[in-house]
Design goal:
alpha+beta, 285 residues, two-stranded antiparallel sheet, 9 strands
Length: 285
């Protein structure tokens, strides 16, 4: 009988036991071979333990983020509600109106952050779901455009829309497509210096409908494009760092497009601009 301990960091975590019918079956070479196998087994067992520990930590983190995001909704709703009621409670002067506007803007930013944290938590836990149905492309384009048009106009951008009539419906989740497009349009107006041009276009390409958002913004290098979608990552461009953002939007966008069976294509040139194109499958009954 040959017994070889499986050791890791001076602790025995297992034993390899071999038995042979004939005497003296385990010579020095056999013992050395089994010792090497035990060393490999120790590494594999330890890696398995570390992997389980990392998964448990990720689950705990996702649960914590989800809990915090949920708990933040109540006070944010209260703050927003009371901010809306202040002008009703009595006359407010111009400075007070400015304060109320600041409160509303910050609540909006917090709402977006909480929504992003919720989505990231669901992505990491595999619980982010999409409701695939027939989606009218014209309707989601209009809803998305309406959601950001005020900000585009505030920054003096020219908005161009190139969308043909009678586009085929796509197989997707209506609200999630709007979320993706608003994120892309928001990035376009934020990362384009005032007075730029933003173009929204759509066209059918075989069994897919391709929707593009093009800007004349700061653009990105190939290295930055490769990092785009990494959680909490933002380019170190001076204009980018002055804009509000969490670095989560593109990570969520990529996952949502993938869950809907679509694809994302990015082309970008520094100081020229970027084009983000999503392809969604045509709906078939």
């Amino acid at each position: 009988v040959l017994c070889v301990p499986i050791s890791r960091e001076a602790s025995v975590i297992g034993v390899v036991m071999l038995a042979a019918a004939r005497p003296y079956a385990f010579d020095a070479d056999a013992q050395a071979l089994v010792s090497r196998l035990a060393d490999r087994a120790a590494i594999a067992i330890e890696n398995g333990r570390l992997y389980d520990a990392v998964r448990a930590a990720n689950r705990a983190k996702s649960e914590f983020v989800s809990l915090v995001a949920h708990e933040l909704k109540v006070p944010m709703t209260s703050i927003s509600g009371y901010a809306e009621m202040l002008p009703i409670a009595g006359e407010v002067n111009e400075q007070q109106q400015s304060f109320i506007h600041t409160i509303k803007n910050n609540v909006t930013r917090m709402t977006i952050l909480v929504s992003d944290l919720n989505d990231i938590s669901r992505i990491e836990s595999g619980q982010l779901k999409v409701n695939i149905e027939e989606v009218d492309v014209a309707a989601v384009l209009k809803e998305s455009k309406d959601g950001v048009m005020q900000q585009i106009q505030d920054r003096g951008h020219q908005f161009i829309e190139v969308v043909p009539a009678n586009l085929a419906a796509v197989s997707a989740d209506h609200s999630r497509v709007v979320q993706v497009l608003i994120n892309l349009l928001s990035n376009a107006y934020k990362y384009t210096p005032d007075g730029g041009t933003i173009t929204l276009n759509a066209a059918q390409d075989g069994q897919f409908v391709r929707i593009g958002v093009q800007d004349t913004g700061v653009g990105m290098t190939p290295e930055q494009v490769a990092k785009l979608g990494t959680k909490f990552w933002r380019a170190d461009n001076e204009h980018v760092t002055t804009q509000p953002g969490t670095g989560l939007g593109m990570a969520i966008t990529r996952n949502l497009i993938s869950l809907m069976g679509g694809a994302l294509e990015i082309t970008s040139t520094p100081d020229v601009g970027s084009t983000f194109t999503i392809a969604l499958p045509v709906f078939s009954a």
